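Structure in, sequence out. Go:
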């Protein structure tokens, strides 16, 4: 689930009806046809989110949320964000922050949530659909650079 939307049911139409028109759209990546990224911005409390919804052949693949604020995100703020996600989507899972805020979680539908805590703090939800698996299988080691910078 993401914003009360089932990952496998997210489409451009669902997004537009749920959160409105995107702020920006990329209609094609250099080497990948039929690839689209919809960008949205929104704020919750003191946090600003830049969301990238990725689609291939009109199938939702993943969303990446980059979290920013007017101040440096400290451990308390990151924990607050992650606690909200835990309460809303993963109430039965204990998040372990003892080694930092980089988490990888798989849900009952085999979708993934992972966080990256480096220069920016980001949260990514991956729709582990057959289309996503097919794309990964099509990418050969020589072609790995095709996806560089997508996530």
């Amino acid at each position: 689930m993401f914003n009360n939307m089932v990952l496998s049911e997210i489409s451009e139409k669902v997004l537009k009806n749920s959160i409105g028109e995107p702020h920006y759209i990329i209609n094609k990546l250099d080497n990948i046809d039929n690839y689209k990224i919809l960008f949205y911005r929104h704020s919750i409390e003191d946090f600003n989110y830049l969301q990238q919804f990725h689609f291939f052949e009109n199938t939702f693949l993943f969303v990446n949320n980059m979290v920013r604020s007017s101040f440096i995100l400290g451990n308390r703020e990151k924990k607050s964000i992650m606690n909200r996600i835990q309460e809303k989507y993963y109430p039965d899972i204990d998040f372990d922050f003892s080694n930092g805020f980089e988490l990888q979680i798989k849900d009952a539908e085999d979708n993934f949530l992972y966080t990256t805590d480096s220069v920016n703090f980001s949260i990514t939800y991956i729709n582990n659909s057959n289309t996503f698996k097919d794309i990964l299988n099509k990418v050969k080691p020589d072609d790995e650079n095709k996806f560089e910078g997508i996530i």
